[in-house]
Records
---
Amino acid sequence: MNSSVIIFPGSNCDRDMDVALKKFGFKNEMVWHDDEQLPKSDLIVLPGGFSYGDYLRCGSIAGKSKIIKSVVDFAAKGGLVLGICNGFQILTETGLLPGVLQQNKNIEFICKNVFVKVNNKNNKYFNSIDKDVLELHIAHNEGNYFCTNDELKMLEDNNLIAVSYCNEKGEVNEKSNPNGALQNIAGIFNKEKNILGMMPHPERMIDKYLSGEDGSIFFKNLLNNLK
Amino acid sequence: MTTVNEQVAIDHGLKKDEFKKICDLMKRTPNLTELGIFSAMWNEHCSYKSSRKHLKNLHTQGKRVIQGPGENAGVIDVDDEDAIVFKIESHNHPSFIEPYQGAATGVGGIMRDVFTMGARPIANLNSIHFGSTQHKKTKNLLRGVVKGIGGYGNCIGVPTIGGQTCFDESYNGNILVNAMTLGLVNKKKIFYSKAAGIGKPVIYVGSKTGRDGIHGASMASAVFDDKIEEKKPTVQVGDPFTEKLLLEACLELMADDSIISIQDMGAAGLTSSSIEMASKGKLGIELDLSKVPCREEKMTPYEIMLSESQERMLIVLENGKEENAKKIFDKWDLDFAVIGKTTTSKKIELYFDSKKVADIPIDFLAEDAPEYDRKWKKTKIPQKIKFKKENFKSLKINNCLIKLLSNPNICEKKWIWNQYDHTVMGDTIQKPGGDAGVVRIHGTEKAVAASVDSSATYCFAHPLTGGKQVVCESWRNLISVGAEPIAITNCLNFGNPEKEKNMGEFVECVQGISEACKYLNFPVVSGNVSFYNETKDKGIKPTPSIGGVGLLKNYKNMLTMDLKNEGNVILVIGKTEGHLDQSVFARSILNEKKGPPPEINLFNEKNNGSTVMKLMREKLILSCRDVSLGGILVAIAKMCIKGKKGVKLNKLKSLINKFEFFFSEDQGRYIIEVSKKNLKKVENILKENSVHFDNLGEVQKDNYINIDSEKISVDELSKHNKNWLMEYMEQ
């Protein structure tokens, strides 16, 4: 399977994503933001980081970069687009996903392990994952998801809230919400569920010497579902 | 333009006789731009005029040392093609005036020092010291500094893997912010600052030059007074995004062989970078300042030369490589300008609007900079305190332990490091909160461990002992995670060197550091000195911060401190003599602040450490922690908390009382966890090597520390240890 990771000026999880994708068998290519054409890909990843320094608003300038037009076209044709952290912020800024990511409620950067509940397995990303709760890692200053009531209703009605912050037992409550996100939302799909944006970083959890291994489950599964 | 006279020179921080020396050397009165350049090069921060004499005595040699002090950073060999570039640097004065920007640009500056040498930064650490927790400024300063460190490091995408935070009233008027960076480089692709060749183009890259930070280095070379608010404009403003671009662009350019020499524009900006390059290469340099990219209008040559705008580099390129280099910097949207060339004149010659505006022989600025042999006073070793039975009468182990674990200098600092991205780059295998942080060398089996330590309380009581102690502490911390200690970088934070007492503290701390480094074969490869940490006549305690780096040949052998399994035996390696003077216990519970620091026996230190390493190589140790602040019981409690386990401690067979046994801060000790089946073997190895040890007890499943009839809940201890800082910051 072929994947592409887009590098924006200020991306800083691009290498980590490249390492993770290759580890689990993707043929990955790095794509510069100023290119117009995407290489032939089964999966496009917008990695974490601080594209354009997060100036103006997180993800907003990256959302206007040259390559994004191709990403939008790719997604429109049903191609898989995954945005992690800053990548999620870029997806909301381009309008590919609804809502915004505001500053964390405690106005501090948060770097720690969290648990997320997988709400919808009927898609290429989570299909046939055994676990209902994954331990992943967050590292962000603006992960506090927010959207209008109508958008929230649309997300809920269509079961598009991909993952929600929860505790070890899978209970979604205020205590397990690290950043103030609306309804503990950690990641969402578009209607067709080919686009996934989420704040947690699966690429930082890919071997037992790191913060954990649940990221491996995510990537292995994704590759299998694409085959 | 201002006419230069003695008063103008004094306003620039120069002394009368220094100004006279300048006029004598130049055989004329310098113009304002020249005077500015002299003041920048001759200040304490850049010239090391008070410290140089003593720094020469530091131990800097070792078989793994590729580059010692004198470059942008030190370099050590970590086998194969790999080398680690590292350094620690202070950003104290600016951080007190403007904590966010001061701390942020401190991190930015040290990362530039490292990638200037061709290394990709792989880990950041920091040592930060604040005033009393009761002082009205402390909370805001702490919040600002932590945000600044995080704001910069997180954006660049380099994990902050460790650090140290101290509170002490001596920092009420002068906080310390010391930032350390480690980078990874191919041994054959290290870049240095020495220029070579005549007529080579001098290139300016990075951000545009503004009016920020003018005289920053001079500000850091003077004490604070009431007018400190007025110094805000001397604090630089950081832009981590540009630094990230600069990092990527420089590493891209470094992939081929177009760079002859490269230097970041740190303290004293374009002045010190250009002069250092020329001085090291014994060359001259000619710059046309009209070509320097400026972000403000009508900047004068004086301002351009003294600006400390961040994220800028000066590069000497091979002829004909300009076009290719420009392409790379254009790709990363960074300014690129050819601003001059190297010459044979051995002078710095500056032009602006086609007029010559400065002309100074390089030697006057570098070699001829003043060097002082300042007077200093020895500190006598204080008399030992005789603690009496009544001192301990009303005390309970349980309450003391809780008090110690929630002491600001011992409590868990999660509130701080949760705000630092410590996992980006995907190689952090030991997070902050342990004895040392550990990152893998990407794509290999190897890993590097790093820690930062200081012990100002000991250094204040007796600088010579304190200097030795802090090196030993660093050595121990590295060993405790399973690493072989290799080398250190030091950041020497002191008060006003013009005072004999402060100068004495400096001289004796350096002497202590040197002795310990030599004995442990643990050389100093880089560092910096920060004097004048003084406000209105009140100086800080002498605070050398030591950043230690060690190597793990196989990261899978890394050790952590969390207790592993019930039934295992806990040993303390090293002799417990019961030295309470200057311990956290004596100071915070007995309220006794006098007495000598614990003695350092370098023979025992080395022997104990080497033997622990031997046990590790034989895979006989399951968890490990060095004994430091708070003594044995605090170390064990932290191991219990991390491992979510309890312990049953044996009845003491010691001659000293239980408070002395549990809370004394004797040096050279480690707590190790060993399985019962290996106990005999471990004991034999310890005996063969003449290492003193005591069997403390066993790991238990129940979550309690059991001492005689006392039962202390680990959950309770954990709560106190984890909550203190969070609650303090929320109040």
---
Amino acid sequence: MTIKKILLTASVSLLPVLLSAQALDPTVLSKPLGATDTWPTYSGDYSGKRFSSLKQINQTNVKNLTLSWVGKVTPGAGAGGGRGGFGGGNPVIIGGEGQADPNAGGGFGGAANIRASILQVGGVLYLSLPDNAWAVDARDGHEIWHYFWKTKGGTHIGNRGLGMWNNYVYMETPDDYIVCLDAATGKEKWHKEIASFNQQYFSTMSPIVIGNHILTGTGNDLDEPGYIQSLDPETGEVQWRFYTVPMKKGDPGLETWGSLDGAKHGAGNVWIPGSYDPETKLYIVGTGNPSPAYTNPQSRDGDNLYTCSIVAVNVETGKMAWYYQLNPHDTHDWDSTETPILFDGEFKGKQRKMVAHADRNGYFYLLDRLTGEHLLTSKFSDAANWVKEVNAKGQTIRDPKKDSIVPGALVSPNNGGATNWPPPAFSPNTGLFYVPTNEAYAMYYLTETDPRGAMGLGGKDETGLGSLGSYLTAIDYKTGKTAWRHRYPGLGGNVGNGILATAGGLVFAGDAGGNLVAYNDATGKILWHSHIGNVSNAPESYTLDGKQYILVAAGDTLFTFCLY
Amino acid sequence: MRKAITTAVLTFSVLTCAWGQAPPGAGPGRGGGGGAAFPQRAPGDPAVVARGRAQYGIHCNFCHGSDARGGEGGPNLLRSDIVLNDQKGEGIAPVVLNGRGEMPSLQLTAGQIADIAAFIHNFPVNNRDPARFKPPTILVGNAAAGEAFFKTTCAGCHSVTGDLKGIGAKFADPKALQNYWLLPAGGGRGAVAPAHLKPVTVTVGTTTGRLVRIDDFVVTLALPNGSQQTFRRSGDVPKVVINDPMQGHKDLFPKYKDDDIHNLTSYLVTVK
């Protein structure tokens, strides 16, 4: 009898399920999503597709999808015992280097919003909020442990999720540490500083585990250089560091900056995980915008490599194999960090290994992922009005008249972007790339007229003018054209929610009205919904006890659905 | 098993009801244990900062600028990793004493370097870095061209002797006027939506009211009698028509040239 069958029997006969945290079998990480009973890494697998091969839930029966359980988490150190959620009562494990009173609760304003991808390994869910990590029972949401990090500060905008290696779980903190926890107990094994808090870095990224490497990324809204770092999973020692901007004389790309000092303060921070191609050992990731973000000091004259680019870095050496800059010399804080998606397929009569990316700037790009060769550029946001030309290399070249200017430029997208961090998805069955889209406009006024420019995100005043609509957009990768898009009713616009596609012919996403919705993947027709509140992360799917589950978070609450 | 399902369904409906009134997670955030978005420095002792300013003026000002944001050849010090990680001059000292790249070494005492550090650290380093100077006026357009644009584009709904009479006198800041006319109901800074603006209404079948919320599955109207009514939606049934008084403004966004906008603002400021 397999373990799966034993668990299934136990659950059906209402016997208590013996729970013990299970180490993550490293071979699971290189398998496609749905091939194992797990969701072991940020996107479910390395490809970034967020496509599950599971099809127990399909177009025919999704109308019967029903709630399995609801569970709430309470962040903060004072959360132990008697919380409003399910179960709990464990003492909170406290770590951290900050001075804050751990019982004060504290807070950085706003409600707890689970934006993270949630791991599911061995019947345990591992999830996070800034400064907080939990293990909860995937069968009923009961808390197994809760770890709280006393912070020194940092931007608490979100945490994108945890990474797992064997029986270790890793979390980045807003004050720039990576914390390694024992998956079974939540007890801290070690923590290491991954960036300088003094330099105003903040860290939100979900660590990505590849073989013997823990890959981290950071955010920064001042002018500090972006980098990807690889750490030893046992000790946290740095294996390599790859800067996304030139850091010294002779570094490639320096000619695309006005000065070395400009390059070293050129940002390009990497704050969303990349995807990984095990065949080439390339970690393929999108880089952030150049800085200062809105002004054009002489120090950043040029294209500003390797900001707003897709870069492919060898995971063993930390050396860049190729790059493609999507958006030379960005002036709108439009990071290109949105998840690049790897897939194989036919393009113009030839079988290709590709990477696709829908950018905050409103454009969709398709590249050959072995070489970085450009294949296609298209516009998926009708409103985007900042491009002067798509050049021969397929790069979107900005119209300088659409920079922030003193009398104001009317520009779409707004700063939030045509899309943003919420993960897109790709279904190999439909050949469609699904991306949340917002058609918002803003007036961009330049306020810093000192030719040295501003620092960070400063020097401009942006006035939002609302949105012409927000959408779930399905792009045909072969043509770059929109195959269908579903407009969320109403007048508001937002960057939307992350997406899951499945072999059941379904696309799941939170809408703008507080519903989790299942769509027909080929047509966008609505097949099922449940009003659960403001969905805050991308839906996920895995098999547990022989059943396919859909897991999603809305604020501080987890919801799971299945068919009974 | 059946019992378990029933409980789950019950729990779900209770929660769903509760959330009809408040979005989930609307309570106070408890995300962290305190702290600012980036390290904050206490204000420096004015006497020390004054001593530092004098030393800085002598030794550093020419290359790094009087505001430490860079000058003749020297980089911006405020965002320098050495300065950001420095506390009391201990990080700056080796660079000052030994020089670095094109920077010559300077023979200063530890006390003088600490004073200079206090002066530099006294500048706020904000990653939103607000402008330090009042920018020049946004009025760069041609008022006559703006008037012509008004006649062809806006006069169908608006009149400078009617609803827009004296509009130029109502805004002290031309930027606020520009934001206002672009989208009077917008949330932009300085753009205050006046009370006379009509609300967004929606007609569902034969019922019309103010739009409260809408998604693919329900639409809620506020009726003139103060009550609310919610209709279930399924595809195109029932028929729902939204009337957004701002639609005409929004439809123009893809059509404007920035010159049109600047010209029109330059014209409207003259309508007093």
